[in-house]
């Protein structure tokens, strides 16, 4: 693990492997370990992973000041800026950029703001479009607010009565466990400040803007995933100028099949775009 400073945050990141640079970013409430695990079957690339502020080992500034208030460092644009700063810090001239859920939104923001840095996009289970109101992410916003009000233990108890958790507990227990993880992680209290902000934000103002990104892209969606509806992945893939869409087995219901299929399709995409 290494670190660098950005806007008052000590940002923690990992670099492993050798080959073309691949920056792969985690989802909301997760950390760089999610990114590493997702690509643990991939070889022949230098994998760069990072904990965004309020996630993992990257803490929010203890004493916010000019340029490093919460509003300055928590948004898709700010996280994209951090990703660019990390690549610049590492001396990377071009990288494949991607991520899971929130991480895919950050990759899109990075590609739009710093097209000089991004050679291709790898977007897994994206969850944000350009429209306000995200009912599929409402429970994540609720968890953040509950942690701030009740603490992590109180939020965990409150979550048990949320309609999405109640439904998932019977027919999609892996999804329910994922939601519970948002209250159980060591950084849950830290991340609570971030959750409502990121749920309300969006990685692009209008989806039509994605047509300007002509670089190769792979967008991966799946079913039985209430937090990441497949229609979002399909819509983003359709808006990008040079994108392939891959529909994977459901992550929550068939985790082994999902990982195997996603790993194979990612390897094929990367090989075709080396």
Shape: globular
Question: Order of strands across the biggest sheet?
Answer: 1-2-4-3-5-6-7-8
Number of domains: 2
The percent range for strand residues is 15-25%
Q: Portion of residues in helices?
A: 40-55%
What average pLDDT do the residues reach? 95
Can you tell me the CATH class of the largest domain? Answer: Alpha Beta
Q: What is the CATH H-level superfamily of the largest domain?
A: Alpha/Beta hydrolase fold, catalytic domain
Defining key terms:
8-stranded mixed β-sheet, Rossmann fold, 2 domains, single chain, 8 strands, 274 residues, 11 helices, alpha/beta
Structural summary, described in words:
It contains 11 helices and 8 strands. It has 274 residues and is α/β, with parallel strands linked by helices. The protein folds into 2 domains: 2-131 and 202-272, 3-Layer(aba) Sandwich (Rossmann fold); 135-192, no CATH class. The chain has an 8-stranded mixed beta sheet, sandwiched between helices. The chain is globular, with a radius of gyration of 17 Å. The protein starts with a strand and ends with a helix.
């Amino acid at each position: 693990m290494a670190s660098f400073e950005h806007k008052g945050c000590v940002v923690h990141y990992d670099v492993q492997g050798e080959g073309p640079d691949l920056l792969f970013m985690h989802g909301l409430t997760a950390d760089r370990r999610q990114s590493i695990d997702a690509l643990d079957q991939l070889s022949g690339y230098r994998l760069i992973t990072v904990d965004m502020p309020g996630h993992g080992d990257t803490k929010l500034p203890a004493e916010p000041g000019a340029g490093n208030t919460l509003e300055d460092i928590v948004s898709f644009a700010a996280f994209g800026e951090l990703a660019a700063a990390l690549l610049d810090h590492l001396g990377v001239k071009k990288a494949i950029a991607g991520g899971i859920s929130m991480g895919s939104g950050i990759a899109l923001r990075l590609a739009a703001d710093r097209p000089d840095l991004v050679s291709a996009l790898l977007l897994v289970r994206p969850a944000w479009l350009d429209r306000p109101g995200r009912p599929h992410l409402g429970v994540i916003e609720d968890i953040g607010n509950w942690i701030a009000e009740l603490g992590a233990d109180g939020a965990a108890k409150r979550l048990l009565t949320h309609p999405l958790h109640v439904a998932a507990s019977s027919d999609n227990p892996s999804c329910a466990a994922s939601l519970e993880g948002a209250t159980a992680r060591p950084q849950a209290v830290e991340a609570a400040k971030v959750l409502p902000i990121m749920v309300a934000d969006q990685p692009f103002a209008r989806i039509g803007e994605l047509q300007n990104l002509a670089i190769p892209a792979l967008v991966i969606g799946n079913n039985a995933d209430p937090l990441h509806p497949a229609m979002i992945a399909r819509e983003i893939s359709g808006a990008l100028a040079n994108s392939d869409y891959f529909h994977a087995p459901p992550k929550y219901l068939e985790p082994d099949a999902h990982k195997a299929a996603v790993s194979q399709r990612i390897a094929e995409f990367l090989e075709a775009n080396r």
